[in-house]
Amino acid sequence: MISIETILRFLKLPLDLLVVVIKYYLGATKYRKYANRLKICLKLTIYRFGLSIPIQDAHVLKFMENSTLFKVLKFQYPKLTSTIPGYGEQFGNHGIWFAKDNFREKDDPIIIYSHGGGYFLETQLEQLKSLVAIYKHLDPTKKYSILFLDYDLVSMGRKFPRQLNQLDSVYSDLVEQGNTNIILMGDSAGGHLSISYVQYIYSHKPFLPYPKQLVLISPWCKLNIDSKSERRPGRSYNDNRLRDLISIDIFKPELFELFLNPKNIEFHPYFNWSHEPETNWSKIPFFKDPKNKVFVIYGEDESFRDHIIEWTNEVFGNHLSYERTNNKYSEICTKTIESKDKPKLVTYMEPWGVHDGIFFTEYDAIGNIENAKTDKYFGISKVIKFLNE
After folding, report:
1. Tens of pLDDT along 24-36?
2. Average pLDDT, the chain
3. How far from 264 is each of 22, 166, 260, CA to CA, in Å?
4. How far apart are CA 281 and CA 359, in angstroms?
5. This model's pTM is above 0.90
6. What is the 3-state secondary structure (H, E, C) of 25-81?
7. Which of 138, 334, 117, 133 is nearest to 218 (CA)?
8. What ranges do the domains of the chain cover?
9. What is the CATH architecture assignment of 62-388?
């Protein structure tokens, strides 16, 4: 059974899309960066609809397993995927190789990619398309491999920290096999999962080596928000409530009951570390090693913007602040911080960009592979540049 609320949202979707078309031709679209791209405006509206579905009903949007999604992409782009070594091969119970270099050695980099979707939505085809565009431009001499984390969804009754445990299983297996150069990459909820796992190693498995890098794309840094304070003018949740894929209205009191298993109280900090005053990031060895690297990218028009800036400042010092860009790329959009006692930090704010823009507005780079590393694809080009350094 699905709720009346979800049924009404489905019935309202065609009207919402019609309104988008009308506003587009009137020059009044709310998506500022995509005012001249109707297809993207329609796509963003559909994504916004998906993220607004009550979590307990989100299973109706799960059309296929991730392994099937890999096959769909292979069917659509046979030439591209056929040149990706190891594409679609299973790794244990919760891993699927997106790319496994045939000549890799134990110290060659492996990226564990954790997809976004609020922990309750399955991977979207667009996310895999953008991964192809990124992979095709990675330096072949570095022999990158990418392992997709196939974690369970809370909308299917698999409450947190199950997803954290599944990441731990995949990560631990790679370490046990002798791999020494692991990178955690995640968007949205996947970004939260990647950060949480570094903290989890510190608290529960200090014998494990830490990842060498974090690649965080619109990471979900604060899961339980104070709606009243976030609705103040000037806050990104308030100012971007109509511009972004994520609206503050989706955060309801029952969120924790749907996400968390009450029997696992000790794991709650990994779900909600942004509210734990005792969290001291400076004690975690990963965040004390200048040999490590952290990449953070987010959009000016996304709801998570302020929380991403606040978390980054909490960990690395008060280096970031928000300034309006007027859609012009400048020095305020990027920051590189290097110090003797912290990882190298590289951050980008996409002017007028929305949440998870790399995967939900730049996926067409798969059809324009040669130009994927150009400024036309703001986020994809920045990830490529960072990984190739």
Report:
1. 999 999 999 999 9
2. 91
3. 49, 15, 8
4. 29
5. yes
6. HHCCCCCHHHCCCHHHHHHHHHHHHHHHCCHHHHHHHCCCCHHHHHHHHHHHCHHHH
7. 117
8. 1-61, 62-388
9. 3-Layer(aba) Sandwich (3.40)
